[in-house]
Every structure is written in C-alpha cells, then in structure tokens.
C-alpha cells in the first residue's frame, strides 16, 4: 500500500510500505495553501504500480499520472474514487451518472450501473479476476446504504445486504471494504 507524504521541497512523494520513495509528484500552489494535484482519498495505483488514477475534485476531472510525471486528463465531469481493473485495462469510478468505466487512454467511457430516481451508486471495487464489481447503493427515500455486486459490464445486479436504515453498509474506500 502506498502513502503520500509532502517533502520540505514542496513535492508530494509516494512511498511503499517500507518507506522508500517511489515517485515524486510536483505540486503547484494554485492559491495560498491550495496544492494541485491534491490526491486526497481519491486515487488508485494500477496493478504494475507505475500509473495512478486520481480525481481533481475542484475541477471535476479524472486524471492519470505516470512514473515520468506525465499527467493526462481522461474524464471531465463529476468523478470520484477511481479503481483500476486487475489487468489495468479499465478504471471504474463514480460519475455523475452512476458507476462508470473508462480506458486509461480516455476512450470507451460507459456508465455500467446507472443511477435511478431512487438509487445513487458509487465506490466501485473490481474482483481479483476483474469479472465482478462491488459498489454501494444509496437509497434516497430513507437515506440507506447497501452493498451490491454486478458483472464488470453491469449485468446481473444483486443487492448483497438489503438491510433497512440505519444499518448503512458501504464500500467507501475509508470503510475497508473490498475483495479477498
């Protein structure tokens, strides 16, 4: 698991578990104390560990950065919690439309789990094989969260928890949810 630390030089540095710096991300101070990119909680490394997908929440954009410090915007619009597929061919994320996927080259955007009038969907996680996605559904009428599973193309959706408010199960990155 990589963590981000800010060096005295103003760079943000990714570190692996043993504390060895892996890749520097130069930061730009867009306003006093406002550093860009602010990776915050909304980033995910690809399976090889040489690209990171991250969200610039202030600009509503999904970006990629690589080991050469090349940054590329791959999606403009509401986006958060990107997650790479195990083979790094797709990135799943919450868009303004529901759970969506996009290829790292910014092609092939597709909403695989669309929001409905009563459910909003977010926080996807691919299974180790890449065949399935688990994600959170927020049921608006009673403000309840449930965990769902679907194929990685959005088919065969199943509510795994189906519990009433206030149980609130979720796959939020801070909750520790994921596959094992």
Topology:
Elements: E1 3-6, E2 12-15, E3 21-25, E4 28-31, E5 34-36, E6 43-45, E7 51-56, E8 61-66, E9 71-76, E10 79-84, E11 91-95, E12 98-102, E13 110-114, E14 119-126, E15 132-139, E16 144-151, E17 158-159
Antiparallel strand pairs: 1-2, 2-3, 4-5, 6-7, 7-8, 8-9, 10-11, 11-12, 12-13, 14-15, 15-16, 16-17
Report the order of strands and helices: EEEEEEEEEEEEEEEEE
CATH superfamily of the domain at 78-175: TolB, C-terminal domain
The CATH architecture of the domain at 78-175 can be named as 6 Propeller
> Roughly what percent helix?
under 10%
Q: Tell me the radius of gyration.
A: 17 Å
Q: Please tell me the overall pLDDT.
A: 78
| Main pleated sheet | 4 strands, antiparallel
Unreliable spans are: 1-22
Strand coverage percent: over 45%
Number of strands: 17
What distance separates the N and C termini? 15 Å
The CATH topology annotation of the domain at 78-175 reads as Neuraminidase
Structural class: mainly beta
Top keywords for this entry?
single chain; 180 residues; mainly beta; Neuraminidase; 4-stranded antiparallel beta sheet; 0% helix; globular; disordered N terminus
Describe the protein's architecture and organization.
This protein is mainly beta and 180 residues long. It has a domain at 78-175: Neuraminidase. Helices cover 0% and strands 49% of the residues. The protein is built from no helices and 17 strands. It has strands at 3-6, 12-15, 21-25, 28-31, 34-36, 43-45, 51-56, 61-66, 71-76, 79-84, 91-95, 98-102, 110-114, 119-126, 132-139, 144-151, 158-159. The strands form five sheets. Strands 6-7-8-9 form a four-stranded antiparallel sheet, with no helix packed on it. It has a four-stranded antiparallel sheet with strand order 10-11-12-13, with no helix packed on it. Strand 2 (12-15) and strand 3 form a beta hairpin. The chain is globular. The model is unreliable at 1-22 (pLDDT under 50).
């Amino acid at each position: 698991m990589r963590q981000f630390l800010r060096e005295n030089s103003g760079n943000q540095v990714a570190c692996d578990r043993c504390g060895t710096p892996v890749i520097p991300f130069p930061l730009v101070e867009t306003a006093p104390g406002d550093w860009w990119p602010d990776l915050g909680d909304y980033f995910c490394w690809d399976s090889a560990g040489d690209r990171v997908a991250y969200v610039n929440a202030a600009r509503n954009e999904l970006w990629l950065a690589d080991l050469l410090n090349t940054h590329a915007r791959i999606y403009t619009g509401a986006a958060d919690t990107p997650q790479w597929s195990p083979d790094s061919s797709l990135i799943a994320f919450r868009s303004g439309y529901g759970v969506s996927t996009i290829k790292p080259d910014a092609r092939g955007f597709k909403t695989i789990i669309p929001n409905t009038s009563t459910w909003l969907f977010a926080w996807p996680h691919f299974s180790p094989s890449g065949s399935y996605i688990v994600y959170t559904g927020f049921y608006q009428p009673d403000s309840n969260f449930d965990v769902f599973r679907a194929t990685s193309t959005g088919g065969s959706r199943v509510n795994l928890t189906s519990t009433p408010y206030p149980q609130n199960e979720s796959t939020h990155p801070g909750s520790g949810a994921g596959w094992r």
